[in-house]
Amino acid sequence: MYQLDSRDKNSFMRYEIIGAVIVCVLAPIFHFLFEWSGGSPVVGIFTAVNESVWEHTKIIYFPFLFYAIAEYFILRPDFRRFFTAKAISMGLILLLMITFFYTYSGMFGVESLVVDIIFTFVLTIIAFIVSYRNYIVNHGCEQYFLFALILFFAVLAMELLFTAFPPHIPLFRDSVTGTFGFPA
Prior knowledge:
The protein is mostly helical. The protein has helices at about 5-35, 40-45, 55-75, 80-110, 115-135, 145-160. The protein is globular.
């Protein structure tokens, strides 16, 4: 089993804090980047293309993923442990974002941009805390590597495919236009 010394733990914590800040900065950019790009389909694969709940998961998911890749190449941590910690956090992002939105909008019958923005920041912080805890504290997290691998590729496939080929259910419906996926 791979053991971390206090210098590694502090370094990892520092990079997780930096990551949370970067993702919080990138999330609003990823909300508008598709529009700013003139509707580029390549940009749309990684950013929100409409106002559906599903598309909003991408505004945290992809910045988190891109940062995790950079973080791995900077820190060179134990791959299985790092990958497992990050994959679990990425799956959690989707689950919590969707659950929270439907819970608060269903309970109160409202949608609030302010609540959505605050929750995006809170969810980002939670994702990095879970990642840190699984990497540093949960010494057996790498035993879930196969589960993490399956989870990662399933979520990535859904994130990449469901913009172009969205199921016609409310999760994927643009709350403004009532359409699905890429704008016509």
